[in-house]
Design brief:
Helices cover 38% and strands 17% of the residues. Strand 2, helix 3 and strand 3 form a beta-alpha-beta unit.
């Protein structure tokens, strides 16, 4: 190789960094290690902003939160060995969410032992085996010459959703490839093609349901006088809101959503809100009267159906979903429409005959007025103490005080009972991080969500258990200048476990902790922070909440004795099984 040829070559990590920038990716998340430091620094130097987390698990959830907020590709860069092991929780979570996430892991040099080296690799870790066991699609860059194409393949694999891993061994990263600044650098390659489509997923082809299935569903709806539509996040992502609302108005259906599609039909006269574990009394009364159910892009899992008790079981159910495997997976389905939710709704609009107002038994002035006058506060008796607040009453107060143009991101725990009381503009503004049924995913996800939607106020609702797992990201928030409001629902306990033990008449001392004041800790990291024990104290913070200036934390002391309804349902379900 001549000297001039060498001058045209650069380490593969530099070429890969330029490919990522050409993909239109503006932000990446991670925690650098010795085997990713040069790659990360190069990305940041060429204009791809690197957000550095304090723990690998949170770095991955930041990428997932960014992807969920924007619909773009979220990229996390993680080191090898122990760094990779740290990130496994986040990777499993990201895999469950369906968001478009690419996790780039550093990896040990290929053929390490064959190279004649005799010292042990203390960071050796069978990451490919672990990821395969978790069901994650994994690509390995086996040599420098094909690394760009491997990156392209990994990016392409994310286009239809899901989390994909790319392993970059150290010796591959340092292998020489053509310089991106050289006139000979190939600009229109398969990698470049992937780059052209990486930022936003390609528009989905609207898959229509088969005509015989539509005819069957239309006939079923034509016989119904009290139809109920249960609408999930899949329908929202399909842009089906208006088509479903038109169909509902044509047949006289009331509208309910899953938790992930919360507030999708906000403002509609016959919106019942969330169905299942988080529904209100007026909604439940109407749901119980339904004589036909159509589920659009809703999985009908245990939270939506309250373990099979929140929906009438002796009425026909039509399930609309693009995935065959989703039909009848968690709840019975009598008619399957394998289709895009919007396309299926439009087909049904054409196929279902119109009906007289007298045949729309749900559509009455009385029902409309009852739904307009839903009083959530009237459904519980506030359980305040001298030093704590009822979490439900606290949520209703926060709903009025926080900016209306907001994101609500939730960690997991007993405090999730507040979700019905916090309104958002629509499903794009809510993120519930329970896909892996784990606490501790909320903080990182909220940071990524905030990075992806800087025009909104992102509010993280998190319990003290999940917060203590991820406390280090206070420094990340302040250092990176990420606008975030943290509402710490602090009951001084692992709330869910506390009530789980109580309901079984078991000792609860192992689930209870000291009343820690987190406000001074957050202030030390540069937050405006306040300890709040009463609603009057909260009201005094109204100006700061309405227009947050920089990161803000409220350490809200809540009454640990208030159990979430979904916990009661879970225990009752387990008792029925045994």
């Amino acid at each position: 190789m001549s000297s001039s040829d060498k001058d045209k070559q650069v380490p593969a990590y530099e070429a890969l960094a330029h490919d990522i920038k050409r993909a239109g990716i503006e932000s990446v998340f991670g925690l650098m290690s010795d085997d990713t430091a040069l790659f990360v620094t190069t990305l940041d130097a060429i204009g791809v902003r690197f957000y550095a987390a304090r723990h690998e698990n949170n770095a991955v959830s930041m990428a997932e939160g960014y992807a969920a907020a924007t619909g773009k590709l979220g990229v996390a860069i993680i080191g090898r060995g122990p760094a990779t092991a740290n990130a496994m929780h986040g990777a499993a979570y990201a895999q469950r969410t369906g968001s478009r996430v690419l996790i780039i892991f550093g990896a040990s040099a290929i053929a390490h032992r064959a190279s004649g080296e005799t010292e042990p690799d203390t960071k050796e870790f069978n990451v490919a085996g672990v990821l395969a066991a978790g069901g994650m699609k994994t690509y390995v860059a086996s040599d420098a010459s094909s690394a760009r194409q491997t990156l392209a393949n990994a990016i392409s694999a994310t286009q239809w959703g899901g989390c994909v891993a790319l392993l970059l061994p150290m010796n591959v990263q340092f292998g020489l490839v053509d310089s991106p600044h050289s006139p000979d650098f190939p600009m229109q390659t398969d990698a470049q093609h992937a780059a052209d489509t990486a930022v936003a997923a390609p528009p989905a082809k609207r898959s229509q349901a088969r005509a015989p299935a539509i005819e069957t569903a239309a006939a079923m709806l034509a016989r119904s006088r009290r139809p109920l539509f249960v609408v999930g996040l899949g329908a929202h992502r399909a842009g089906a809101r208006d088509a479903i609302a038109r169909l509902a108005d044509k047949v006289g259906a009331v509208l309910a959503t899953t938790l992930k599609a919360k507030d999708m039909f906000r403002g509609h006269d016959y919106n019942l809100g969330v169905v299942g574990s988080f529904s209100h009394a007026a909604g439940r009364r109407l749901i119980d009267q339904a004589d036909c159910i159509v589920a659009f892009g809703a999985g009908l899992n245990q939270r939506t159906t309250s373990f099979g008790t929140s929906l009438p079981v002796n009425v026909p159910l039509i399930q609309v979903d693009l995935a065959h495997a989703s039909i009848g997976r968690w709840f019975h389905a009598d008619v399957a429409l394998i289709a895009d939710a919007r396309a299926a709704a439009e087909q049904l609009i054409e196929a279902v005959p119109g009906r007289a107002p007298s045949d729309k038994l749900f559509y009455s002035p009385e029902t409309r007025q009852r739904l307009a006058n839903v009083d959530l506060a009237g459904e519980f008796q506030p359980a305040h103490t001298a030093r704590t607040m009822d979490p439900r009453a606290l949520a209703m107060a926060l709903d009025k005080l926080l900016p209306q143009n907001r994101n609500a991101v939730y960690d997991a725990g007993n405090f999730l009972q507040i979700m019905p009381y916090i309104a958002v503009p629509g499903p794009d503004h809510i993120k519930n991080t329970v896909d892996f049924a784990s606490i501790g995913m909320g903080f990182g996800t909220a940071l990524g969500f905030a990075c992806g939607t800087p025009d909104r106020t992102t509010v993280l609702f998190i319990g003290d258990g999940g917060f203590l797992m991820t406390l280090s990201e206070l420094e990340t928030t302040a250092r990176e200048g990420i606008p975030l409001v943290i509402v710490l629902m602090n009951d001084g306990a692992y709330g869910a476990e506390l009530h789980y033990l109580k309901m079984r008449d078991m000792p609860v001392s192992t689930a209870i902790f000291a009343d820690i004041d987190f406000a001074p800790i957050a202030q030390a990291f540069g937050f405006e922070a306040h300890t709040v024990r009463t609603l009057d104290e909260l009201q005094k913070l109204a100006p700061a909440l309405l227009n947050p200036q920089g990161p803000l934390l409220l350490d809200c002391k809540i009454n640990a004795s208030v159990a979430a309804a979904f916990l009661l349902e879970t225990v009752e379900h387990e008792r029925r099984k045994t």
